[in-house]
Specification:
The protein has helices at residues 2-7, 26-40, 60-72, 107-116, 119-142, and strands at residues 11-16, 19-24, 50-55, 75-78, 81-85, 98-103. With 149 residues, the protein is an alpha+beta fold. The protein has a domain at 1-42: Winged helix-like DNA-binding domain superfamily/Winged helix DNA-binding domain (Arc Repressor Mutant, subunit A), CATH 1.10.10.10.
Length: 149
């Protein structure tokens, strides 16, 4: 697995004798830093209820931008069409996209969102998570000491 990550440019490998040492390569570091910012330092929400719609042509542009857009939080209801809440930064890889701003206040907006993200699957997984960990939440609320076993 480590060799594959190194071959794909995520890790840099340095051999010292029979030992191999790995560190994040530039690609891995940039992706890790972007994910860290996305998770732990999201921009303040001043969302207006509008959405950014990106249209990306066929070919190399679409292939290059697909992973970057998905990782940035964009959803894709159709090939070459990406959507996200307005104000979400557009990744560099998609800088050449046609950008439109749309409203999602009516039923057509709800359909757009449902087609762009797996909302029901996400909701189901979230409910399963809450059900699974409810006993732990209740134990903590009662002041029960937790152990490592």
């Amino acid at each position: 697995a480590m060799s594959r990550l190194a071959a794909d440019g995520w890790l840099a490998r340095e051999k010292v004798g029979r030992n191999s040492f790995y560190r994040l390569a530039d690609k891995g570091r940039q992706t890790f830093e972007a994910a860290t910012r996305h998770i732990y330092d999201p921009p303040p929400s001043d969302w207006t209820g509008r959405f950014e719609l990106l249209l990306i042509g066929n070919g190399e542009d679409r292939d290059v931008s697909r992973e970057a857009l998905r990782n940035a939080g964009f959803g894709s209801p159709l090939p070459g069409v990406w959507v996200a809440p307005s104000g979400l930064p557009v990744p560099e890889e998609a800088a050449g996209a046609i950008r439109l701003e749309v409203s999602a206040e009516d039923d057509s907006g709800r359909r757009l969102l449902s087609a762009s993200w797996p909302l029901q699957r996400t909701a189901d997984a979230y409910l399963k998570f809450m059900t699974t960990f409810e006993p732990l939440r209740a134990a903590i609320a009662r002041g029960t000491e937790l152990s490592e076993t």
